[in-house]
Amino acid sequence: MKFKSAIFCDSVSNVEYVYSQAQIKELEELTDMIPGICTGADAENGKLADAEVLFSTWGFPQVTNELIAKMPKLKAVFYAAGATDAFARQCFANQVKVISAWRMNAIPVAEFCLSEIILSLKGYYRNIREARMTRDWDRKVTYVGPGAYGETVALIGAGTISSILQEHLSRMDVKVVVVPSRAERRTVSIEEAFRTAFVISNHLPNREDNRNTIRREHFESMRTGAVFINTGRGAQVDEEAMLDVMEKRPDLTALVDVTEPEPPAKDSRYYTLPNVLLTTHIAGSFNDEVRRMSDCVIGEFKRMLAGEPFQHEVKESMLLTSQT
After folding, report:
1. CA-CA distance, 181 to 194, in Å (whole number)?
2. Element housing 115 (H / E)
3. Predicted TM-score of the model (pTM)
4. Digits of tens for pLDDT over the chain (324 positions)?
5. N or C terminus: which one in the chain shows less Cβ crowding within 10 Å?
6. CB of 126 within 8 A of CB of 145?
7. What is the largest CA-CA distance in the chain?
């Protein structure tokens, strides 16, 4: 007998973005699916009373214990996106398993950072600025970076993204130092990382205790020509202090994909400082990459059908930590 399933999301457009028609058809063949895209209101009205598994993505409805109680047969939620903090604990409290594509969402962030690190080691970003300004190909005039042989790269944070990035960097001739978050024992300090590495990339978990972890003195201590990359969270950085230092030291470069708030104010120096390059939070899964997430949860459901253990099940100890 097939599991009774539903696609459960308050955003039709997000479902259509993340799940292809072919994937929806596959789920319809694998399960006894309730027609259409079901919302939180549908669950409230009892439409999902027989649902045993839910498939979702960004836009997961706000759930309470009372709402989950209206889905008494529910066994598992398959979430084709990353962090599940908004609903996972309510599911756990009702013995509902949560499976998330958290690792799949980390892959493009690590790839994005890897590309920026390699270009940073070559001095690419500063070279562009100076070549445009001087129009001089003399390497004594226009900056060239140290390269990727024997240089030091520091990763702030030791979660999933950092781990994938470490694996990529292990294939290169660079020294990688990792600074764990405050919740973990540190063998290398943030101060030492900023002082010694040529590229520093932030991957701290999205937790309140990591706010303003990266401060003015860290940026002031950076080596000549060094590069700071932020794909973590803007709130983890004293942004005004960072912009002050970047303004005073044109040799430095900041590659920023996240800010606090997002987007920055229209008059922010993020838009005007030539050595601060801002992207619009694009490091995570977008366009073709989101299919990796839906493929992941469909694969996990097939493991459930086969009686095999999940590979991406969320545990309470993971919330607000390794999914970042």
Report:
1. 15
2. helix 102-121
3. 0.90
4. 899 999 999 999 999 999 999 999 999 999 999 999 999 999 999 999 999 999 999 999 999 999 999 999 999 999 999 889 899 999 999 999 999 998 998 999 999 999 999 999 999 999 999 999 888 888 878 999 999 999 999 999 998 999 999 999 999 999 999 998 765 566 789 999 999 999 999 999 888 889 999 999 999 999 999 999 999 999 999 999 999 999 999 999 999 999 999 999 999 999 999 999 999 999 999 999 999 999 999 999 999 999 999 999 999 887 764 444
5. N
6. yes
7. 73
